[in-house]
Amino acid sequence: MKARRFIRRPQSPFYAELMAFLRTPTALAHGQLLHSIDALIEVLHAKHLTDLLIQARSARLALVAILDRQHRTGVLAVTWPEVLTLRTAAPSIEVALSRTRIDTFNLAAALVDAKSRAQAMAATA
Which domain holds residue 97? Predict the structure, then answer.
């Protein structure tokens, strides 16, 4: 009997970024993941893709929980339930990203940036 060879499919940039964050969480990686997911949520909401939207929102909630805990404790750490949530949502997020045109994603990212700036200006006013 011949030994089976397993072919590893190449990882998407999102999945690689997520796994790097889970191994060694950094504020920069957290911000990039959160920004990407926020942009994707805008796209999914506009396209009415609720099944994928639910997974993206659960990943966003996990990332926000990580950020809230960092603000409270001063330590950026990921708990096991957050790891499970992010890993569970990753395949759906990859599918959503593969269904999204790059110009649509870039427009959504610009919208997220504009919303962030508006919220920051409102907070300082």
Answer: 13-124
In angstroms, the CA 21 to CA 63 distance is 11
Residue 11, helix vs strand vs coil: coil
Cβ(56)–Cβ(93) below 8 Å: yes
User: 1 lies in a domain?
Assistant: no
Distance CA 43, CA 109 (A): 9
Q: Structurally, how many domains does the chain consist of? A: 1
Please state, rounded to an integer, the average pLDDT across all residues of the chain.
Answer: 90
Residue 7: pLDDT band with limits 50, 70, 90: very low
Dist. CA 104–CA 108, nearest whole Å? 6
Question: pTM for the full model?
Answer: 0.85
